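Typical record is below.
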Amino acid sequence: MSAHHAVAVVGGGQAGLSMSWYLRQRGVDHVVFERDRIGHEWRDRRWDSFCLVTPNWQCRLPGFRYDGDDPDGFMAGAEVVDYLERYAASFEPPVAEGVTVTRLRRSTTGVFHLTTSAGPCTADQVVVATGPYHDPAVPRIAERLPAGVVQLHSSQYRAPDRLPPGAVLVVGTGQSGCQIAEDLHLAGRQVHLAVGSAPRAARRYRGRDTLAWLEDMGHYARGIDEFADADAVRLRANHYMTGRGGGRDIDLRAFARDGMRLYGRLRTVDGPAVTFGDGLRADLDNADAVADGIKDAIDRWIDGRGIDAPAEARYVPVWQPGAPVGAIDLAAEGVTAVVWATGYHRDHRWIEVPVFDGRGYPTHERGVTSCPGLYFLGLPWQYTWGSGRFAGVARDAEHLCAAITATRRRQVTEGVSWLAGTPTETYPELDRLAA
């Protein structure tokens, strides 16, 4: 493949498709490169019982809001894939499936050069819509586990019966870790859970889904620039809850009451011997405090507007940890598998443009980088809570489309391609933009 496009979009998930929708509405020539196929991340990195944590009504991709008969429900993995496929079919984006972009650089003339598995490509502008979840993050101490213990990252977990018989150690209590621990627990497996610092939130409160209250309160429209600690906000773990069974709380204390073994954060591994920190009580208390803080905010909203909402008693802990358990022997506990629910590393090594900070995070203002013509889309808290989700990616894509078309209008005004120095007649859609 050898071609030039006004815009190249890298990534064909919900972010890349949203970008394509707006570009198509504006008549901008573009291509979307997807290394696998549409919906790949939802097909291959989710377990069998997976479902969305956010309610279906928050699925509002541009031009394609959720149109099913269960707006307050939670789509399962296969339904999410179907939603994305139907979205793509609704406007037929120019997606090149099975094409991997392995290198991106910018020439001295301002043209972007992309090396792809299908051949070279150039573009005036590029949108990186690959999201933040690139390489599974597994700590180096995993190498010290006994050879006979099966270990896998949460992205590889599918179902309890795909693990060998025996107990399972789950490390991490973000959304994936908590839901996988529950999946194993409900299947009757003995689960050992190394608890982290992720907060929790109630699924429902005072007669509604908690997220519905937060939507009304404007929480999801709040921009990152309204926070004094923007960098810290972007690094916060998501609150854990689940959409399983119609939606419910995830209560680690209830799991412990019913037989799950909870520990502090995993510290060391030495063969079958593993040790844990002593912060379990503090982490459970903090998770409950965050959930109560959200309820406090909802109460103030209800009271301040005189909303008729049923009263609801506050949560009372159903279990308290005893003295910290500092270590266990995996063999003695019958642990045959470890699931690492420890997140992902970003991998932008293929981007040879200096727009990253010392931690490898792309520096940007609402997705617009300091490099003219280079943008990012679909990052968590790119601008709002919903930026990396079905709920808010449309707003970011629309913002970037405006930035892209503004640049192309400058090209029309100056009579040449501002970035590439090529005649404007190469891009017939510019006449429409200039009108």
About this structure: The first helix runs from residue 14 to 25. The two ends are 33 Å apart (CA to CA).
